[in-house]
From TrEMBL:
PROSITE patterns: SAM_TRM61. The keyword S-adenosyl-L-methionine applies. This is tRNA (adenine(58)-N(1))-methyltransferase. Its main location: nucleus. It catalyses: adenosine(58) in tRNA + S-adenosyl-L-methionine = N(1)-methyladenosine(58) in tRNA + S-adenosyl-L-homocysteine + H(+). One of its GO terms (biological process) is tRNA methylation. Keywords: Methyltransferase, Nucleus, S-adenosyl-L-methionine, Transferase, tRNA processing. Its EC number is 2.1.1.220. Residues 69-307 form the tRNA (adenine(58)-N(1))-methyltransferase catalytic subunit TRM61 C-terminal domain. Pfam families: GCD14.
Length: 312
């Protein structure tokens, strides 16, 4: 996903090679992570795609099957990886992730501590944010989850930027070796208030802590603990609303009271096709229509940010 060599620029301009991990885009709600293997094939409803035909093509290429169907070959960015990774736990999605990276003030070179790792969705974006000279140290109490996360980071080329540890942060706190060394700390724990004192010891002066919790009761108790050593405590709930923009039919025939009928607000594309004066029965026009998506994602969790108090 990212170059292992810190001297290289972070980009996906290179050509697809045998052994690369890619994201196959079939449609907006159907993506697959596939390792390119010369001699292998991908079979789906669009036909059969030979991996050998992909090798040497740039990321973003549109490739065709023998029956004329096509897919896109995309680079495994953190945003796309979040959509295709295996869900070992509930994950954070792009809306929350982008908010976290921004408010934790993460830039290249930062040292970030995270608990727990879970499915590694956030860890992947944190790694890109600190690259090429920073590092993410993430911890999970579940040994098998931690091992699976290591495998994923190896697949995506992030193993040089992310170190996965097995540790009960709620019970033991963060390792002492990170005391005063972390620029930011992120907590995704059922009882984050138990880990907040340890997180405060890990942060540099003016460092920022974020705690993600699905329930407001967790937020209230966490904030009580934060007030001892933190300031500028703020909680946010990020809600995302997506829109569908597509071509459709608009009725310009009018209603009983003479006013025009339109199923949705729209931008007209062809005025000449609105009404056929010669026929008189053509009352529909092709238009580009926009409306909120029928399936809207609601509450995911609360994000509480706090800044470590400066010691005078």
């Amino acid at each position: 996903m990212l170059p292992a060599d810190g001297k290289k620029a972070i980009s996906f301009q290179h050509l697809i090679a045998n052994g690369d991990l890619i994201i196959v885009y079939e449609r907006h709600d159907n993506l697959k992570a596939i390792k390119v293997c010369d001699g292998s094939e991908l079979q789906n409803r669009f036909g059969v795609f030979k991996h050998s035909d992909w090798i040497g093509k740039p990321f973003g290429s549109k490739v065709f099957s023998s029956k004329g169907g096509f897919v896109y070959l995309l680079a495994p960015t953190p945003e796309l990886w979040t959509l295709v990774l295996s869900h070992r736990t509930q994950i954070l999605y792009i809306a929350d992730i982008s908010f976290v990276v921004s408010f934790l003030e993460i830039v290249p070179g930062c040292v970030v501590l995270e608990s727990g790792t879970g499915s590694g969705s956030l860890s992947t974006s944190l790694a890109r944010a600190v690259a090429p000279t920073g590092h993410v140290y993430t911890f999970d109490f579940h040994e098998q989850r931690a091992a699976s996360a290591r495998d994923d980071f190896e697949k995506t080329g992030l193993s040089n930027l992310v170190t996965v540890g097995v540790r009960d942060i709620q019970g033991e706190g963060f390792p002492d070796e990170f005391s005063g060394a972390a620029d930011s700390v992120f907590l995704d724990l059922p009882q984050p208030w138990l880990a907040i004192p340890s997180a405060g010891k890990m942060l540099k002066q003016d460092g920022v802590l974020c705690s993600f919790s699905p329930c407001i009761e967790q937020v209230q108790r966490s904030c009580e603990t934060m007030r001892l050593n933190f300031t500028d405590i703020r909680t946010f709930e990020v809600l995302l609303r997506t829109y569908e923009v597509r071509e459709g039919k608009t009725d310009f025939g009018g209603s009983e009271n003479g006013s025009p009928i339109s199923s949705l607000p729209c931008k007209r594309r062809q005025c000449s096709s609105e009404i056929d004066n010669n026929r008189g029965d053509n009352k529909y026009s092709t238009a580009v229509m926009a409306r909120p998506s029928a399936e809207a994602k609601g509450h995911t969790g609360y994000l509480t940010f706090a800044r470590l108090k400066c010691i005078q």
